[in-house]
Design a protein that fits this description.
Number of helices of chain B: 0
Mean pLDDT of chain A: 94
Order of helices and strands of chain A: EEEEEEEEEEE
Largest sheet of chain B: 6 strands, mixed
Order of helices and strands of chain B: EEEEEEEEEEE
Mean pLDDT of chain B: 92
Shape of chain A: globular
Oligomer: heterodimer
Low-confidence stretches of chain A: none
Structural class of chain A: mainly beta
Low-confidence stretches of chain B: none
Distance between the termini of chain B: 41 Å
Distance between the termini of chain A: 32 Å
Structural class of chain B: mainly beta
Number of strands of chain A: 11
Helix content of chain A: under 10%
Strand content of chain A: over 45%
């Protein structure tokens, strides 16, 4: 399918377990992003990547790990899930960093519940 | 530091009525401003953006927003609400996607 996809769409896990959320885009966009969405906070950036093998922290990176071995994939791993990581996670991509000329495209989201 | 404030977590309108969603920003540099819409169980979709070319910005689905520097505002309007406009709307500010700051969102409810 063309576009940006996330899997799984829903995930329930337990405290302390490792969880990986997948993100895949078909446009060969250079930039990819992971956000979390919580009530009362809007979207907050967790990590972003400017290209394969280049990643950087966002506003709320603690407890998360990312990798980007291929341009089209940007997985997000919670190494030891905590209840505070219960959230909706969105992946996004864009050709460049320039908000003036480009548009950011969002995936449908993954709803993660940590018990 | 840049920030946005969306006034009103919920706004209710009747079908056919004016839609007004408020956004005020804080920025030390000329900002790029955005409005996104999120339909249930979907990701965010860009409605419109201000990049200093024109203060009145027209977007998709009949929405528009006016940049007012003196009021540090970028309110979103639509003359006549449709049932299909019911969604959550986010204002954002940033001069780079890695620095984009989102507001807390306003849920628009449209009644028949």
């Amino acid at each position: 399918d063309a576009g940006i996809t996330q899997s799984p769409r829903y995930k329930i896990t337990e405290t302390g377990r490792q969880v990986t959320l997948m993100c895949h885009q078909t446009w060969s966009h250079s930039y990819m992003f992971w956000y979390r969405q919580d009530l009362g906070h809007g979207l907050r950036l967790i990590y972003y990547s400017a290209a394969a093998d280049i990643t950087d922290k966002g506003e709320v990176p603690d407890g998360y790990v990312v990798s980007r071995s291929k341009t089209e994939n940007f997985p997000l791993t919670l190494e030891s899930a905590t209840r505070s990581q219960t959230s909706v996670y969105f992946c996004a991509s864009t050709p460049t960093w320039d908000t003036g000329t480009d548009t950011q495209y969002f995936g449908p989201g993954t709803r993660l519940t940590v018990l | 530091a840049q920030s946005v404030t969306q006034l009103g977590s919920h706004v209710s309108v009747s079908e056919g009525a004016l839609v007004l969603l408020r956004c005020n920003y804080s920025s030390s540099v000329p900002p790029y401003l955005f409005w996104y819409v999120q339909y249930p169980n979907q990701g965010l979709q860009l409605l419109l953006k201000y990049t200093s070319a024109a203060t009145l910005v027209k977007g998709i689905n009949g929405f528009e927003a006016e940049f007012k520097k003196s009021e540090t505002s970028f309110h979103l309007t639509k003359p006549s609400a449709h049932m299909s406009d019911a969604a959550e709307y986010f204002c954002a500010v940033g001069t780079g996607f890695q620095k984009l700051v989102f507001g807390t969102g306003t849920r628009l409810l449209v009644s028949p």
